[in-house]
Amino acid sequence: MPTGSDRGAGACRQRAGLAVRRNERPVRTVAAVAALVAVPANVLAGAPFRTDDPGVVARSHYEFLPFYSQTLASGVRSGALPGFELHYGALDNLEVDLVVAAAFDSSAGGSTQRGYGDTELALKYQFVNETETLPAMGFVPNFILPTGNAGRGLGNGGSQFFLPLWLEKRSGNFSTYGGGGYWINNGAGNRNYWFFGWQAQYQLSGHWILGGEIFHSTAQTAAQSASTGFSLGGFYVVDRHSQLLFSAGKGLQNAAQTNQVSTYLGYMYSY
To answer: What whole-number distance in Å separates Cα of residue 261 and Cα of residue 50?
Structure first.
């Protein structure tokens, strides 16, 4: 069923403190968002992580992110090959997001299903800028259209609506961000649920940024229990316009049912 950055996914972004911050320059070297097994698979929160941050694309600029993601759970491997994210700075402190994916769903010894997955639309509004005492804060409502065929394992089977609040604080080359919110999860057998995540990362050099996250979700379906997991990954900054994103993780609670292993690989171009 996953169609998005079921990586851990996670989005989206190179949130580390490069010399010039995203809200201080026309072009942001940041990477885009997946939400993985602890989140509806096609939802890309903050690729390559599931946890997002409040930062937005500068006005009239954009980010384009093709990606591959997969998650193995209950003997079924599903994800996106490929998926695409587009982020556009519509206004100051306001970003518009679109996520589409060619989804796949493959069980051991069975056939692989392929087709168009669910579609994500989102608005990202940063309503508080970071100060010495306050973290940056952002509200990011997400709406998921059930365009994927749920009967073939390529979609959720109903619309979804996410209402999260994200926070971020930076200190030198170190940054940490996280938060969470409530998912309205329509569809037969689905449950509304809470998702929470927190990430920390460190900029090792002008090219390498590494980090990790931990996340938790209450039960998303009637047949599923609550889940907790983690991802490790980061970013390789190629130049001021492009970077590679990568992560891998697994579940810590109910892993066999929700996330035995998940991986993510993407390339982000910004302008």
So the answer is: 14
Helix (H), strand (E) at residue 57: none
Take residue 178 and report the two structure tokens written for it.
């996280």
88 and 58 Cβ atoms separated by less than 8 Å? no
Structural domains for the chain: 22-270 (2.40.160.40)
Write 177-185 long-range contacts (CB < 8 A, 24+). 177/15, 177/46, 177/51, 177/52, 177/53, 177/54, 177/135, 178/51, 178/213, 179/51, 179/52, 183/39, 183/40, 183/220, 184/160, 185/40, 185/156, 185/158, 185/160, 185/220
- pLDDT tens track for 94-121: 999 999 999 999 987 788 999 999 999 9
φ/ψ of 150, rounded to 5, equals: -65, -30
Give the rounded percent of residues in the chain with a pLDDT score beyond 70: 83
10 Å CB burial of residue 205 (0-12, 13-18, 19+) is exposed
For the stretch 34-78, pLDDT in tens is 333 333 333 445 899 999 999 999 999 999 999 999 999 988 999
Closest-CA residue to 264 (of 115, 108, 46, 107): 46
